[in-house]
Amino acid sequence: MTDGGGTESDHDLTGGEIDREPDPSDSLRTFGAVAQALREHAGYSRAEFADLVRFSKHTVESVELGRRMPDLAFVERAEEVLGNTGALRRGSRYVTRGRGDVGLAAWFRRWARLEREAVSLCTYECRLVPGLLQSEGYARALFENRLPLLTDEQLEAQVEARRERQRMLYERPTVPFHFIVEEGVFRRRLGGADVLRGQLDHVLERTGCRNVTLQLMPMEAEFHACLDGPVRLLETPKGQGLAYCEGQENGRLISDPKEVRVLHQRYDTLRSQALNPKDSRGLLERLRGEL
Q1: Nearest-10 crossing angle of helices 277-290, 193-206
Q2: In sequence order, which residues have a C-beta less than 8 Å from that of residue 199 and are 6 or more positions away?
Q3: How far is CA 218 from CA 64, 115, 182, 222, 237, in A?
Q4: Cβ–Cβ contacts within 10 Å for residue 290, how many?
């Protein structure tokens, strides 16, 4: 994941933040506690209640434990099931998320904040589906594979943080988001065939947005400009170009103009080597059909 922010020099982000996830906001925990109390008073188990409100048991648990913002649909369905007392509907108006980087790795937080202000964002990934394009099932499988193992609370916080980041694709429809991803990433059955099937469906849906472009780097490609690994590039509202590279348990923000220029050159070259968006979509559809 990432961090990000600097002005004139490179930043090693491994030591800049406390490597600890912040606690959920008090209002989230209070809302969750009230929702749980009303459910238990009505005599429903979490599984029974989840079926009635048409959300997963994971979602119900996350809301009740203060790890997830309650969706409007969740609030309305819960009110209907629990007697229309108005408590949840009124209480949801005062729920705040707290810090916006809950569930993000310490070294990623500054870059995540830069992403929210960027006027363009380019991503090359060769290891896994980029976070902004991950389905919930894929993200969950990814975090379940993490070592050392995450607690249930940490895992849910990570999944929720990923969902929140993805809202940028819809909330900023005039900002171009461009992705280049290795074909092999979409062939790896992380979490199993069902998870991959859902991930492919998710990507095909997300890339239907006019501001989201995906190109696949085919496995048979003879030329490759980004063999040094994944990279992300963005432009700030002031026109500054920044880059971010990530490795095992660390991330590095790059703001030196010369280095950013080199990474842009590599990315632009890779863009010409990858399949065009239409052919990339066709390949994804073929991969989906093979499952």
Answers
A1: 150
A2: 129, 134, 135, 137, 138, 186
A3: 44, 27, 7, 9, 33
A4: 9
DSSP string, 107-138: GGHHHHHHHTT-SEEEEEESSS--GGG--HHH
Q: Is 73 exposed, middle or buried (0-12, 13-18, 19+ CB in 10 A)?
A: exposed
* 175 secondary structure, DSSP code: S
Q: Rounded to two decimals, what is the model's pTM?
A: 0.68
pLDDT tens-digit readout, 166-225: 988 988 999 999 999 999 999 999 999 999 999 999 999 999 999 999 999 999 999 999
What is the distance in angstroms between the CA of the first residue and the CA of the last residue of the chain?
A: 29
Strand pairing of 241-247 and 250-254?
Answer: antiparallel
Dist. CA 209–CA 279, nearest whole Å: 16
What is the token pair recorded at 265? 């050159």
Integer CA distances (angstroms), 135 to 33, 61, 162, 169, 236, in order: 28, 19, 9, 14, 27
Beta carbons within 8 Å of 214's beta carbon, 6+ residues apart: 133, 179, 180, 181, 203, 207, 277, 280, 281, 284
Q: What is the pLDDT of residues 20-52, one digit of tens each?
A: 333 457 788 899 999 999 999 999 999 999 999
Strand order in the sheet with 250-254: 11-12, 250-254, 241-247, 231-235, 120-125, 177-182, 212-217
Is 27 exposed, middle or buried, given 0-12, 13-18 or 19+ CB atoms closer than 10 A? middle
**∠7-2-152 over CA atoms, to 5°?**
150
Give the integer Cα–Cα distance in Å for 159 and 31. 20
* Encoded tokens for 260: 């950013």
